[in-house]
Write a structure and sequence with these properties.
two-stranded antiparallel sheet; 7-stranded mixed beta sheet; UDP-N-acetylmuramoyl-L-alanine:D-glutamate ligase; about 30% helix; about 200 residues; alpha/beta; single chain
């Protein structure tokens, strides 16, 4: 339905799906509270069942809203098959397994996550650049640090000069949805969803 592939979607009795609630501060900055629920039941056997889907995907996107070792294994499976990987370390872990850096083609974090990972508070573009360089040293290929209303900072091994991408002003309608077009525009600009691109999103 709506061109969403539900091949690997399963229903479990007596377990709820992940619950996420956004609370907004006076400055309109959001604070997200997450209750993982059934997400923590995703395991290595589930990954094995999804191996064919992973191997044929264009991009595999992972976060830490499932067990970190399972998310890391998904990234490894994707990289072994030549599939591009995008990792968002949310919710962030100070002791994140170093392999997450080396198995992510794109490592995308926000200011809070960046500080947890590196110990560097991100209050401006210069701080974001410091974080980006540190993450590159840990093995990342391309780092994106999102800066809320200030846009984002990008830095990569191939383009070591940081690039600031400002955010345009928009009227927020719904801030809770993840937009897969971000992945397609960033890594597959010539490929459209309607052409049957498979994207596995591990949250």
């Amino acid at each position: 339905m709506n061109s969403v592939i539900t091949l690997m979607l399963f229903s479990l009795k007596r377990y709820w799906n992940i619950l996420g609630k956004r609370n907004y501060q006076p400055q309109r900055q959001n604070v997200i509270v997450i209750v993982p629920g059934a997400n923590l039941l995703l395991n290595f056997e589930d990954l094995k069942r999804a191996s064919d889907v992973i191997q044929k995907a264009k991009v595999v996107v992972c976060q830490l809203e499932i067990t970190p070792t399972v998310s890391l294994e998904a990234l490894k499976m994707a990289r072994a098959s030549g599939v591009k990987t995008l990792f968002n370390p949310a919710p962030a872990l100070a002791d994140l397994d170093p392999q997450f850096y080396t198995h992510s083609d794109i490592f995308c974090c926000n200011e809070t996550e960046a500080e947890i990972l590196t110990g560097i508070p991100v209050g401006n573009l210069e701080d974001a650049e410091k974080v980006g360089r540190m993450l590159l040293e840990r093995g990342c290929k391309l780092v994106i640090v999102t800066l809320g209303a200030e846009g984002c900072m990008m830095i990569s091994v191939e383009e070591p000069i940081p690039k600031h991408v400002p955010a345009g002003k928009v009227r927020a309608v719904d801030t809770t949805k993840f937009d897969l077009k971000l992945v397609l525009i960033l890594e597959c600009p010539k490929v459209l969803v309607k052409r049957g691109v498979t994207v596995l999103y591990c949250t």
